[in-house]
């Protein structure tokens, strides 16, 4: 049986690789849906038409064809600061560990948010993000509570899908916490697994099941991306009542699969003031119609729990998909948007991410905002654009010091710091 399963998984992997392409000369011509063409055939000519007519129409297309329905039901969530220290990280920050109870009667349905606030700034802007393996991986700070949730076997320091003391600070390089605080920003993060674990069966114990009657939505009406995006909005709910931060200046960042969730959260919650996609690839910032790197078919075969069921039906007919990534990015307008790629991360299709960001500029122009002026791919480490900004970084699939330097400079400029 084990040999048979191994053969099956190997066969599936080979089939997926066979469907992929990383040769730019083999990319076939494609036509993008016109983001400004309304259902009646007329074109959007001003920001009012976009906000009142076209944006709601495109948003519904994403609900129906890619992400599934985003819960509209308001819930009576509760917050409690479980731990706080005004002298965290050798006195440079205040640390708060906040529990958000999501269910009105089931106390086991909650998420834990880790918040660091710089002590030398009054009401700082705040970056929010989900993390992959638990809040304790963000910093070596020994006072951060270890997650008790299931974690992936890939999680550093994990044993039998549980976090251990060896997990502390396992992902500090991705967060650059001290730099962020020194630049005058707060950070709020939560483990994506608090909302739903990243497995095919994660919905059974995640919010898509535990909250289905409260949110009036069934598990099959949305995917893990929607659950994670909805969770990000709950972090925003908390920040809006924490007087120590400026909740009008929330910057949302997401990497890889959590970058896809960040884009959907930014599209769904306009309280988020700035959105950053770091190598979000297929289903995120990369154009699906470009046959390069990961494809709609591959991503749904490998991660069928991420998106709505209808998205899977476009695997062999991607050109019939009524939406594409440039339309998702356009839903962020007129708020500042940063899209970033890595030169060696061909799976995420850097050029597809760039072209998507370029195309989104057509909507930003309706608001008098400047995007990226040319469709010529920039050289590595040469950021381009204004309110829509992009860079291609040298290196692999990751969040690096270089990335954070660009994001902090961008957010500082846009927030008037």
> Which strands sit side by side, in order, in the main sheet?
1-2-3-5-4-6-7-8-10-9
| Helix amount | 25-40%
Instruction: Work out the radius of gyration.
Output: 21 Å
Number of helices: 12
- Contiguous runs where pLDDT drops below 50 for at least 5 residues: 1-18
Pfam families: GCE_fung
Domain 4-O-methyl-glucuronoyl methylesterase-like: 220-368
Signal peptide: 1-18
Keywords: Hydrolase, Serine esterase, Signal
State the main characteristics.
about 425 residues, alpha/beta, Rossmann fold, signal
Could you characterize the architecture of this molecule?
By secondary structure, the protein is α/β, with parallel strands linked by helices. The protein has one domain: Alpha/Beta hydrolase fold, catalytic domain (Rossmann fold, 3-Layer(aba) Sandwich). Helix content is 30%, strand content 16%. The protein contains twelve helices and ten strands. Strands 1-2-3-5-4-6-7-8-10-9 form a ten-stranded mixed β-sheet, with helices on both faces. Helix 8 links the parallel strand 6 and strand 7. Helix 7 crosses helix 8. The longest helix has 21 residues. It starts with a helix and ends with a helix. The relative contact order is 0.13. The N terminus is likely disordered. It holds the Pfam family GCE_fung. Keywords: Hydrolase, Serine esterase, Signal. GO terms for molecular function: carboxylic ester hydrolase activity.
SSE topology sketch:
Layout: H1 2-18, H2 47-67, E1 78-87, H3 88-91, E2 93-101, E3 110-118, E4 126-131, H4 177-182, E5 186-191, H5 207-210, H6 212-215, H7 224-240, E6 250-255, H8 257-268, E7 274-278, H9 296-302, H10 325-330, E8 337-342, H11 350-364, E9 384-385, E10 388-393, H12 401-414
Parallel strand pairs: 4-5, 4-6, 6-7, 7-8, 8-10
Antiparallel strand pairs: 1-2, 2-3, 3-5, 9-10
Helix pairs in contact: 7-8
